[in-house]
């Protein structure tokens, strides 16, 4: 059985001092516009950096993290950081994050899910407090196998798995490779890699429209993913050396992919700084984006399918909003609900909507 070690976040004072020194020595670029149309606008970034430098309290965030049960689990030849929550003996549930987030994606939803589930939130290797892979190979199938080992380490023989962004591809691989343990899938999107496995012209108008929408989004907004997928090490050096670079690279997505006009808004400044600080203080900016390269090299076979009952909780301001006809090409869709509000970070932005719909799906099984 995989080894479990209790974990607490304890960032050294020297790392916080180094961060503050770098923040105080920020070298700013000029800008031609001050809106989101050209990327990160200077006024918004100045506001974030000022708060990071002068107001933000990592130690308070760290204490909040440490109020939860946490472990390092030996799985797949690495150590996976895991947050535990919920009710022991209840339905086991795995929650899998994406980029540029982490276990923080689910933090606000945990109290709403706690009575119904026994919850495991692993961090993808290279993210957060999980170990950083030192060689290629950690794509969705590899991560899925390691995450199944995590569930076995906690004694779970049968479980539901949820994911979106990177998490949807990992959960799909879990279902396909471990059907004897994964009883159902719950997704926030259709894994992006699936769009390369079909010819939309072979299907009707609904599939063609979805494919066109996805292609248009990636053409307009997908430059970051192309860099991550092809030459991640190049931008990785900058993101690891400069807090300004990391904040700009991540904040533009954390703002742009959220439903900022929804009731309650998108993500708060605290949310953004918790997330950016976690990447900075764990030194995972480069290892996290390397996952994109591995994700393209270590996928399921295009013909592979996860045949479990699958539910979708879709948020209307996601980057590419899933549709049921497209989802049904790859999954046994038993539940498909489009929410009233929310964007790419649905559980983080609209935890009540996410939790209620996930519970509704689980109760229907």
Note poorly predicted spans: none
- The CATH topology label is Rossmann fold
What would you report as the Rg, rounded to the nearest angstrom? Answer: 20 Å
Indicate the CATH architecture.
3-Layer(aba) Sandwich
End-to-end C-alpha gap = 29 Å
Give a description of the structure.
With 365 residues, this protein is α/β, with parallel strands linked by helices. It has a single domain (4-364), classed as Rossmann fold (3-Layer(aba) Sandwich), CATH 3.40.50.1820. The chain is 44% helix and 15% strand. It has helices spanning 13-24, 42-54, 58-66, 110-113, 140-153, 166-177, 205-221, 223-230, 232-241, 243-256, 269-282, 285-297, 324-327, 346-349, 351-364, and strands spanning 4-6, 69-75, 78-86, 91-96, 117-122, 159-163, 182-187, 309-314, 332-338. A nine-stranded mixed beta sheet has the order 1-2-3-5-4-6-7-8-9, sandwiched between helices. α4 (110-113) links the parallel β4 (91-96) and β5 (117-122). α5 (140-153) packs across α6 and α8 packs across α12 (285-297). The two termini are 29 Å apart. The model has no long low-confidence stretch (mean pLDDT 96).
Task: Describe this protein with a few key phrases.
15% strand; alpha/beta; 365 residues; Rossmann fold; single chain; 9 strands; 44% helix
Short note summarizing the structure:
With 365 residues, the protein is α/β, with parallel strands linked by helices. It contains 15 helices and 9 strands. The protein has a 9-stranded mixed β-sheet with strand order 1-2-3-5-4-6-7-8-9, with helices on both faces.
Secondary structure: elements and pairs:
Elements (H helix, E strand, L loop, with lengths): L3 E3 L6 H12 L17 H13 L3 H9 L2 E7 L2 E9 L4 E6 L13 H4 L3 E6 L17 H14 L5 E5 L2 H12 L4 E6 L17 H17 L1 H8 L1 H10 L1 H14 L12 H14 L2 H13 L11 E6 L9 H4 L4 E7 L7 H4 L1 H14 L1
Parallel strand pairs: 4-5, 4-6, 6-7, 7-8, 8-9
Antiparallel strand pairs: 1-2, 2-3, 3-5
């Amino acid at each position: 059985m995989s080894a479990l070690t209790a974990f607490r976040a304890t960032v050294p004072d020297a790392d916080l001092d180094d961060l503050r020194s770098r923040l105080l020595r920020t070298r700013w670029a000029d800008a031609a516009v001050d809106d989101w149309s050209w990327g990160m606008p200077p006024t918004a970034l100045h506001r974030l950096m000022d708060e990071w430098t002068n107001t933000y309290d990592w130690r308070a965030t760290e204490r909040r993290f440490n109020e939860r049960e946490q472990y390092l689990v030996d799985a797949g030849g690495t150590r996976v950081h895991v947050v535990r929550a919920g009710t022991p003996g209840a339905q086991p549930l795995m929650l899998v994050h994406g980029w540029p987030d982490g276990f923080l994606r689910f933090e606000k939803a945990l109290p709403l899910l706690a009575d119904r589930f026994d919850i495991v939130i692993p961090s993808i290797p290279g993210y957060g407090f999980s170990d950083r892979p030192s060689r290629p190979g950690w794509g969705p199938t590899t991560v899925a196998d390691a995450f199944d080992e995590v569930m076995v380490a906690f004694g779970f023989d049968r479980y539901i798995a949820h994911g979106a962004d990177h998490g949807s591809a990992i959960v799909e691989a879990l279902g396909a490779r471990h059907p004897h343990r994964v009883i159902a899938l719950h997704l926030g999107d259709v894994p992006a890699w699936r769009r390369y496995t079909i010819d939309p012209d072979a299907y009707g108008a609904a599939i063609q429209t979805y494919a066109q929408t996805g292609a248009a989004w990636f053409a307009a907004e997908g430059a970051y993913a192309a860099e991550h997928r092809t030459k991640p090490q190049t931008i990785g050096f900058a993101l690891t050396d400069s807090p300004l670079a990391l904040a700009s690279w991540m904040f533009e997505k954390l703002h742009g992919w959220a439903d900022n006009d929804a009731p309650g808004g998108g993500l708060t400044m605290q949310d953004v700084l918790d997330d950016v600080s976690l990447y900075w203080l764990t030194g995972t900016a480069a290892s996290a984006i390397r996952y994109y390269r591995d994700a393209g090299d270590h996928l399921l076979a295009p013909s592979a399918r996860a045949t479990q009952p699958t539910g979708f909780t879709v948020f209307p301001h996601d980057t590419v909003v899933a549709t049921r006809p497209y989802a049904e090409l790859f999954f046994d869709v038993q539940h498909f609900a489009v929410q009233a509000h929310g964007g790419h970070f649905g559980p983080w932005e609209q935890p009540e909507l996410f939790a209620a719909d996930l519970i509704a799906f689980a109760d229907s099984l």
